[in-house]
Amino acid sequence: MFIVSPSVLASDFAKLGEEIRKTEKAGAAYTHLDVMDGMFVPNMSFGAPVIASIRKESPVVFDVHLMITQPQRYVDDFIKAGADIVTIHYESCDDPAAVVKYIKSKGVKAGLAIKPATPADVVYGMLEDLDMVLVMTVEPGFGGQKIMLDMFDKVRAIRKYANERGMDIDIEVDGGLTADNVHLATEAGANVIVAGSAVYNAKDPAEVIGKMKETAAAHPFKA
Ligand code: DX5
Ligand code: ZN
User: How many angstroms is it from 35 CA to the middle of ligand 2?
Assistant: First the structure.
């Protein structure tokens, strides 16, 4: 299923609940919550207490992207706060497979993210346990960056690998996605699109999300 996951990093934090409801009404089934610790990435955002307080504001799927070192220290906090999907970075800890298994054991969906320099094949051995792979299309840390189009080769490799083995997995792309380049993502096999500035800076978020959905339907996976 094709899903747009607007990143609140580009929203007005003074009215987070309202901002999330706005994108929900505009057709977004997920909300992407970027957690940054100032260590794994050179920026800080928010943590579990903020997520817990916005949980009651909207029933959308909380798609939590942890850009923090040793995420196993805080996974329980994010699950308690109401995360529906917890995505950790492959590069952020010694045993990402164990952290993924732990997330799954708590009844929450697990995602694994890879930075631009990390090859696609590191996820293959873990696909059976994963609900989602997140392929970063910018260096993590900031919204509003230019997309790295060559990252779609990794998306295509992962989609091919999964299809050949009959695995149904979500592939999310994050960073620099817009209604004008989303066709490249879906043709490569991505089906969950993070969009921060493209949605939140738009005059009409519903138009952007609608256009993304139409484009996705017209541009299915091309091996
Ligand atoms: C970057 C974050 C992204 C970011 C995307 O580290 O993971 O989710 O907010 O923002 P845009 O869509 O503006 O590139
Ligand atoms: Zn993100």
Answer: 8
Residue 7 DSSP label:
B
For 136, residues 6+ apart whose C-beta sits below 8 A from its C-beta are 113, 114, 115, 116, 151, 173, 174, 175
Q: Which amino acid is at 103?
A: I
Burial label for 107, CB within 10 Å (0-12, 13-18, 19+), is: exposed
Q: Is 172 in the pocket of ligand 1 (CB under 6 A)?
A: no
Q: Is the CB of 205 under 6 A from ligand 1?
A: no
pLDDT tens digits for 37-90? 999 999 999 999 999 999 999 999 999 999 999 999 999 999 999 999 999 999
* Positive or negative torsion for Cα 167, 92, 7, 117: negative
The reply to whether the predicted model has a pTM over 0.90 is yes
